Amino acid sequence: AAKRRLDGPQLYDAALDSASAQTLSLLTELRRAVEQNELRLYLQPKVALQGGHGLAAEALVRWQHPQRGLVPPAEFIPFAEQTGFVRQLTLWMFDAAARLLADERTRGMGLRISVNLSTRDLLDPALSVRLGAMLVRHGVQASAFCLEITESAIMDDPQRAEAMLNRLSQQGFKLSIDDFGTGYSSLGYLKRLPVDELKIDKSFVMGMQTDENDATIVRSTIDLAHNLGLTVVAEGVENAAILERLRALACDEAQGYHIARPLPVDAFLAWHAQQT
Ligand code: C2E
Ligand code: CA
Ligand code: CA
Ligand code: CA
């Protein structure tokens, strides 16, 4: 069998040279990561561009590996999606985010947290019940959460996805279409689904200054979102010029390295304290 390769630095040495041994090993390691509490909740601020409302952030996972150090999600999320392990990871992230919202350090902040869902989550009939149980356990409101879903996750099985999104929306969760513009776009589903937000993919935002097509896509997406009554967020904002251009285009919120990198919880709270 062909050797399975991971993007970026290799997690495992050549000693494990069969694909199945590597798969088994990574799965064992991921299970251990959850048991030994090696996963970390990072938060990246999402700021309002047109004034108003409280603080929002996207929850992004990191793996504090005992040998490899801090492992980025690109090195294990695709694998976690293939194996279905991502459902456990999603629950871990949601639990960590809910715990933070119940923490006295965030009280009165009006903090809202966006959590990423995968295709596997969306097709899991137990998802809404599991999330609901965690809300009860931590005593937090569904409306403090936004669930980010990619277009391709929805288009994998649009009927089942629509049923799940309707349930999540009825529970009070806000819903966002992530990486908007990169997927198999069908504008028809946009008006059918109970979506609250569009998130413009960072490839278009990062290209805005140098590529007229990217700038046009960003402008059109902002207009489309507003015409449909949706909030629109730009991700991948890396400099002040792009931030100002987005503000002038009436984009509602921005997220990116220019504002802040994804931060561990303590650093995120310190960042917020410095803003005010
Ligand atoms: P995403 O959901 O599109 O998340 C945004 C990614 O863009 C994050 O990468 C973030 O660090 C990065 N980013 C933010 N601002 C900038 C910027 O100004 N410039 C550039 N170049 N990048 C920026 P990250 O944290 O490495 O996550 C990568 C992907 O891994 C995420 O893309 C998401 O698809 C997945 N992921 C991360 N955490 C989770 C999770 O808890 N659950 C699931 N299912 N997927 C996750
Ligand atoms: Ca996301
Ligand atoms: Ca995204
Ligand atoms: Ca992405």
What does this 3D model show about the protein?
This is Diguanylate cyclase/phosphodiesterase. It comes from Simplicispira metamorpha. Residues 23-276 form the EAL domain. The chain has 276 residues and is α/β, with parallel strands linked by helices. It is built from twelve helices and ten strands. The protein has helices spanning 19-35, 77-83, 86-102, 119-122, 127-138, 151-155, 158-171, 187-192, 202-207, 212-227, 240-248, 265-275; strands spanning 39-48, 56-65, 69-71, 112-116, 145-150, 174-180, 197-200, 231-234, 253-254, 263-264. An eight-stranded mixed barrel has the order 1-2-4-5-6-7-8-9, surrounded by four helices. Helix 11 links the parallel strand 8 (231-234) and strand 9 (253-254). Helix 3 packs parallel to helix 5 (127-138). The radius of gyration is 19 Å and the shape is globular. The model is unreliable at 1-9 (pLDDT under 50). The protein binds ligand C2E and calcium ion (CA) (3 copies). Ligand C2E binds next to strand 2, helix 3 and strand 6.
